[in-house]
Design a protein that fits this description.
Elements (H helix, E strand, L loop, with lengths): L6 E6 L12 E8 L10 E10 L11 E2 L5 E2 L4 E3 L2 E3 L1 H9 L4 E11 L5 E9 L7 H15 L5 E4 L15 E3 L7
Parallel strand pairs: 8-11, 9-10
Antiparallel strand pairs: 1-2, 2-3, 3-4, 3-5, 6-7, 8-9
Amino acid sequence: HLLEDCYVAEALHPETGEPTPTGEAGVSVVSNLFSEAQPILRYEMGDVFTLADRSCPCGRTHRLAAGGFFGRTDDMLKVRGIVVYPATFESVIRAVPGVGDEFEVIVDRADGGLDDVVVRVEPAPGDAADGASVAARTADAIRAHIGLRVRCEALAPGSLERPQMKARRVHDRRVKVGA
């Protein structure tokens, strides 16, 4: 639930800055209703969410951030014209049966100049499925939910690095213009 008695929340299109229709993802922009000394109007938070006007079973009447906040504009990737967030990759991959806890997504530029996406997964320990079927199911799920064709590789369990702190599993290795 959004605390609409404390601030006004908006979801804006990340490129145009125009309000997004209800149910469409946008960047969070808030205006504080209680700041007397220094009003904070239309402060862009950088979080991506979807505003929902549906009623909640708990009885609250404030609008909802449907599904919570699912990404940040500074984490946003544009791959072959599709905007995708690391959290989206994670939610899709974790929903695939037989995939273990660790995965890695590498976005690179292929020789022909096209974006190339490689997803590396580990089969879940003790899962009877072979690596090839786990990789195929993962690639199919990403294509169905995100709209990207990816190459998926299944590695032996324990092959991927185990993070010690916050995991960074999506790596954008494309050369940035002007970098």
